[in-house]
């Protein structure tokens, strides 16, 4: 579905859904994120995954801090992205201690401090959690407009599971897409699993 067919632009859809999401209270954000965590940790592909890429949440995204900590406790290897603004790519780094290793980085997103950057190859990943602004029931995704995850996903082996985490209010009838946009494999919300 092109922007023209939906009748609004990516930027308009972004602003509309970000406005909805802005209205969630801290308690709602936390409670819903816990429900989403439960669904993620029950997925077979998550249970089987050894190396998992998590985003580190910012703005009013589904919270991942407690997911990252529990995954580390469970013995998973956790990888987080570092935004490379020059070419809008993601550098991957293994995280071992959430509380000790992070500092505020690009876009005010937490990133590893220099001495804790431990580069990881794309080919090592088993599962990727994907952030976003809006999703639809066909698993299409709208992000913040950097194209980071589309460019990153295009270079991933197709058998790496890409699982989006979103609040139900981020699900729209139709996401405005273009030819670069790659759908995710699943979208988890506090209410359901969209495949
Ligand atoms: N938590 C988290 N980490 C992430 C992402 C994400 O969506 N969530 N990204 C996912 O890719 C990358 C960062 N992508 C970003 C892309 C744009 C903007 C941003 O501030 N954009 C401007 C508008 C730019 C425009 O419209 O041209 C803005 O929103 O004000 C922020 C992050 C990597 N790390
Ligand atoms: N695989 C790709 N190769 C080259 N350019 C791309 C690719 N994917 C996206 N782009 C370009 O990046 C820009 C932003 O894309 P888009 O608006 O889809 O970002 P987004 O998915 O909303 O953002 P993000 O992934 O950072 O959350 C667009 O100009 C788009 O053409």
Automatic annotation (TrEMBL):
Instruction: List keywords of the entry alphabetically.
Output: ATP-binding, Ligase, Magnesium, Metal-binding, Nucleotide-binding
In the record, what terms sit under GO molecular function? 5-formyltetrahydrofolate cyclo-ligase activity; ATP binding; metal ion binding
Quickly give the catalysed reaction. Answer: (6S)-5-formyl-5,6,7,8-tetrahydrofolate + ATP = (6R)-5,10-methenyltetrahydrofolate + ADP + phosphate
Similarity comment text for this entry:
Belongs to the 5-formyltetrahydrofolate cyclo-ligase family.
Which EC class does it fall in?
A: ligase
The protein's Enzyme Commission number: 6.3.3.2
This protein's record includes keyword Ribosomal protein: no
Q: Origin, by domain of life? A: Bacteria
Amino-acid positions noted as binding ATP in the UniProt annotation, renumbered to this chain: 10-14, 141-149
Its name, as the record gives it, is 5-formyltetrahydrofolate cyclo-ligase
Any one of the GO BP annotations: tetrahydrofolate interconversion
Record-listed substrate binding positions: 56, 61
The signal sequence is none
User: What cofactor is this protein dependent on?
Assistant: Mg(2+)
* Keyword Metal-binding appears in the UniProt entry: yes
